[in-house]
Design a protein that fits this description.
98 residues, 17% strand, Beta-Lactamase, 3-stranded antiparallel sheet, alpha+beta, 2 helices
Length: 98
């Protein structure tokens, strides 16, 4: 967090935060999304693998995200999406049952 404190410009802060989250958590792609006054949205920052399609700068009309979903995004600042073709991880247990 101390790395983010001196950043005063919103987009620069979002870029650095996306980069840090991707580095620390190992995600393939991290995006920061901003809602505008007309409820349209824009990807304002992104950190991704080089082989993935970029979304930076794309704007989406308000109709692309239902009002209920926008409200959830405003309340829950982080959202994690799994890739639909990803192989789910194995769940291993070290518990012994008697």
């Amino acid at each position: 967090m101390t790395k983010l404190e001196p950043i005063t410009e919103t987009r620069a802060l979002c870029r650095e935060a996306a980069t840090m989250v991707r580095q620390r958590l190992g995600y393939d792609q991290v995006m920061a999304y901003r809602f505008h006054g007309d409820d349209s949205g824009e990807v304002v920052a992104e950190a991704k693998r080089d082989d993935l399609e970029p979304y930076l700068g794309l704007r989406y009309p308000a109709t692309d995200i239902p009002k209920q979903a926008r409200e959830l995004f405003r309340r829950n600042k982080v959202r994690v999406l799994a890739h639909v073709n990803a192989t789910p991880p194995l769940i291993e247990s070290s518990l012994a049952f008697a």
